[in-house]
Write a structure and sequence with these properties.
The complex is a heterodimer of chains A (206) and B (349). With 206 residues, chain A is of the alpha/beta class. Helices cover 32% and strands 21% of the residues of chain A. Chain A has two domains: 68 residues, Translation Initiation Factor IF3; 112 residues, Hypothetical Protein Ychn, Chain: A (3-Layer(aba) Sandwich). Chain A contains six helices and nine strands, in the order βαβαβββαβαβαβαβ. The longest helix of chain A has 16 residues. Chain B has 349 residues and is α+β, with helices and mostly antiparallel strands. Chain B is built from eleven helices and 13 strands. In chain B, the strands form two sheets. Chain B has a seven-stranded mixed beta sheet with strand order 8-11-7-12-9-13-10, with helices on both faces. Chain B has a six-stranded mixed beta sheet with strand order 1-2-3-6-4-5. The longest helix of chain B has 18 residues. Chain B is globular and about 55 Å long. The chains are: A alpha/beta (206), B alpha+beta (349). At the A-B interface, helix 1 and helix 2 of A face helix 8, helix 9 and helix 10 of B. Chain B: It comes from Marinilabilia rubra.
Chain lengths: 206, 349
Amino acid sequence: MHTVDTKGHLCPEPLIMARNAMKEVKEGEKMLVISDNETSYQNLMSFLSDLGANPVADQKEGQYFIEITKPAETSSGKEGNPEAYCNIPHNMPEDSNYVVVARGANMGEGDEELGSLLIRGYFNALKGMDNLPTHIIMYNGGVKLALKDTDTSESLAELEDKGVSIIVCGTCIDYYQIKEKVSVGRISNMYQIATKLAEAGHVVYL
Amino acid sequence: MSNQETDLLKTVEYGGCSAKLPPGELAGILSKLPKMQHPDILVDIDTHDDAGVYKLNDETAIIFTTDFFPPICSDPYEFGEIAAANALSDVYAMGGNPLLALNLLMFSSAEMPLSAFEQILQGGHSKMQEAGALVMGGHTIEDHSPKYGLAVVGTVHPDKLITNAGAKPGDLLVLTKPLGLGVLVAARRLKMVHEDAYRNGLEQMKLLNKRGGEIMVKHGVRSATDVTGFGLLGHALKMAEASDVSLAVRTRDLPILDQAAELANDGCLPGASFRNFSFVQPSLHVEKLVEPHLKMLACDAQTSGGLLMCVSPDKVDEVLFDLKASGLHQQACVIGEVLTRTRKSIYLE
């Protein structure tokens, strides 16, 4: 296995050494990064996770052995030109680029009590899924799902902590006069909602 | 620049504002100190603002602040200029005018030539002159590596005070200087940065926030902070908490110094960026589409960084126009907005 020995080097050198070495191996190939400094090790773990290299660490006799896998790079040459940025980071598979939209406080049409039960069940189930959406957008009556002391807001908070962006329609919370009661999510305007919907790989309407 | 061979950067591992204590640990220690209470204290350490403010009378309040740090660059004169610009910045961030200053210098005459001592002070005084502040003396002790900064007193009308506690939902966030100073300085040590990109970074650090402060006062901006060692997100977090709001920051709109994005992407990320990221992480939501190196640049420790202003939407065009017309802030731009408070203090997009 290709090995990068960063012992004796202080940050940011170990990160640069690991990054350079990754350029030398093929996609999907494994590499080993060795560190003897706890701070460097922690920074390496954070940096390599960000790169999508799935670092797995082992500690032996004051040394850290980090095994990484070179991710597929789909966004090369992105510096300097924001237009060239790829919307899908290299560590995100195509099928997880989706957005969930809550149009109301209920799921589906029909009995309201049943609809409320269903939507609570949906977010509860979503928490346990591997394939999470990039965003959950809530508008019209859907914004009530984000209010304090609701079990849906607790599920949404857990999803937010897992990296799902929760978008709450600002016009809607003004209309319902519940601005002070929203506990979770980023309050947004229609331009941002329209942008997210346009960028999504696909959209799931509840 | 001074004409000598002294390389101050060789004396330190962490220079400039990246030499700050970890923000979380500092907050823990400060919380144990007895709280100062007085009816004329307008701003104390409670809101982690840039400086303390004390009202003398209905017309005048004094802004009292200090900053000092180890070398951020090789040249002693430039180090003096940067340290002074940084020390003055807190006064400008609060809408004030600097009045008086005292030098704080640690220097070992056994380790370094006395000419470097003189050059540091010359650089500092040149910036104080530019600011129109009077240096009244100071204090020097023997220590290695060198550390320099100033204690500064400024004045402001109590009704025109700008704090980090006045951000209102709907305001737009304007940043006046580009990010990436910590990255460039780290890259300089490793000889990875082009000379012109590095020089440009030095010029940004030497640039006073004077004009930015004047523009805030002119347009009635009520909330701002300066961006230094805790990085953009660290200082934004303190502002969000002090103002009881959430902030959205758009990484694609962040002004970034030449070459800094490329260096950050190559792993040239100083330790301070990771410390700052750990500090903000519990209060931060990062959208999945955010490029990781831009997230880290948003945490990059700045030395003598720019002003982060909260500007009402009807004033933002004029503020940006004035910043650019000054010829000093070509990269100033809107980087986000102030939101009603929800469970995360910062939404990074």
